[in-house]
Amino acid sequence: xxxxxxxxxxxxxxxxxxxxxxxxxxxxxxxxxxxxxxxxxxxxxxxxxxxxxxxxxxxxxxxxxxxxxxxxxxxxxxxxxxxxxxxxxxxxxxxxxxxxxxxxxxxxxxxxxxxxxxxxxxxxxxxxxxxxxxxxxxxxxxxxxxxxxxxxxxxxxxxxxxxxxxxxx
Length: 169
Description:
The chain is α+β, with helices and mostly antiparallel strands. Strands 2, 3, 4, 5, 6 and 7 form a six-stranded mixed sheet that branches. Strands 1-8 form a two-stranded antiparallel ribbon. It is built from four helices and eight strands. It has helices at residues 6-10, 94-99, 111-121, 160-167, and strands spanning 2-4, 15-22, 35-36, 40-48, 53-66, 73-88, 101-103, 107-109. The longest helix has 11 residues, at 111-121.
């Protein structure tokens, strides 16, 4: 995913738009049962402020994931904002040296930077929907497909004393 910023560098105060699409399927997300279903679509707006280039945009892709509650596969849509600051090394101030992506040439590869943003945006636990009821802890049935009655009326023996306490009122 390469961006050529020569047009932006030569025109101070200008804004240039980029529309990039690349296949990230070769990247390992580090999680079993998680893979890219669609190419990553990145839209960028690069604004030259003469000191640096301010970058704003969006990252859009779809991932094949497994629900952490019901264990069913589903497609997880990822839409996230992207903000960055790019500066040429010879123009960078001390502040920019610490925070900006430093450029040595006009063409840069931002694939690793985009992948980093995707990984940081991933949830700790994937769920297919907010209403997902998950699996029955007793029989393992998917409670989204059919109601499960195997756990009704069963009280954990460790909590049986609490049931008696409630009935005394």
